[in-house]
Design goal:
By secondary structure, the chain is of the alpha+beta class. The protein has three helices and twelve strands; from the N terminus they run H-H-H-E-E-E-E-E-E-E-E-E-E-E-E. The longest helix has 27 residues. The radius of gyration is 21 Å and the shape is globular.
C-alpha cells in the first residue's frame, strides 16, 4: 500500500494542474481569448528552464564555507566552517543545497545540517527558495529578484518570532563573485534599518580537495 503513495501523489498533482488549466481555458474560451491548445502551450513554456536556471546551475559542485554570525550588533562574531554541495534537480528547474558542519556556542560544539531548494519561478518572474535545518521545525521561504548581471540575488522573507509572537523580516543577498567564490549575507530588519547578522563565504572545492594556505582554492 505504501508503494502506491508516490504514484498517487504524482497523479494528484497532475490532475490538479490539469484542473487549473481547464478552468482557466473555460474562462478564457467564454471570453474568446484562448483555446486549450494555446493554454497548454503557455503552460509548457512556463515549465521550461531558462537562463536564470542555467545561472543557478553554475553553482553545482562542492563548496567549503566560512561562516560568520553576529548574535547581536557589535557582539563578538562566532566563526565556523561547513561543506555544502549544490546539485540540479527536476530537470534543472531547481537546485538543492545540502550543508554539513558544526559550530560552537557557550563552549559546546553542535552539529549543523541543512537543506535548501532554490529556483526561479517563471510565472512570478522571481527567484524563490525554501530552507530547513536541524535546529528548528520551521520551513523558511523567500523570494526576490536578481540584478542586471544575474550574479546578485536579493531575497526577502518573513518568519514567526517565537519570543514576541509577532514576525521577523529578513533580507538575504547571494553574490556570485566568480566561478570560485560566493558571498551570502543575511540581514534582519530593525526598525527602518537592516542589520547584518550572518555572512557565508564559499570557496569551490576543486577535484582532489587540495587545500592551499588561506582556504580552499
Amino acid at each position: 500500500m505504501k508503494m502506491q503513495i508516490r504514484p498517487l501523489l504524482g497523479a494528484a498533482v497532475l490532475v490538479g494542474a490539469t484542473t487549473l488549466i481547464t478552468g482557466e481555458v473555460v474562462s478564457r474560451q467564454h471570453d474568446g481569448e484562448m483555446n486549450m491548445e494555446e493554454m497548454w502551450e503557455t503552460w509548457m513554456k512556463l515549465a521550461e528552464p531558462g537562463p536564470e536556471h542555467a545561472e543557478l546551475a553554475s553553482l553545482a559542485g562542492t563548496w567549503h564555507q566560512k561562516n560568520t554570525h553576529w548574535p547581536a550588533p557589535g557582539a563578538e562574531p562566532m566563526v565556523s566552517e561547513s561543506v555544502a554541495t549544490f546539485a540540479p534537480i527536476m530537470g534543472g528547474r531547481f537546485m538543492v543545497e545540502k550543508v554539513h558542519g558544526e559550530f560552537e556556542m557557550n563552549g559546546e560544539v553542535s552539529k549543523f545540517e541543512a537543506m535548501g531548494i532554490f529556483g526561479y519561478d517563471n510565472l512570478k518572474e522571481k527567484h524563490v527558495f525554501s530552507w530547513v535545518d536541524n535546529h528548528g521545525t520551521m520551513i523558511m521561504n523567500g523570494e526576490g529578484t536578481a540584478d542586471a548581471t544575474g550574479k546578485v540575488i536579493t531575497y526577502y522573507s518573513t518568519i514567526p518570532n517565537p519570543m514576541t509572537g509577532g514576525t521577523m523580516e529578513f533580507k538575504s543577498v547571494s553574490r556570485v563573485v566568480n566561478d570560485e567564490r560566493t558571498i551570502f549575507e543575511m540581514h534582519q530588519k530593525d526598525g527602518d534599518s537592516w542589520v547584518r547578522n550572518m555572512e557565508i563565504v564559499g570557496s569551490r572545492k576543486r577535484r582532489g580537495g587540495a587545500r592551499k594556505k588561506g582556504g580552499w582554492h
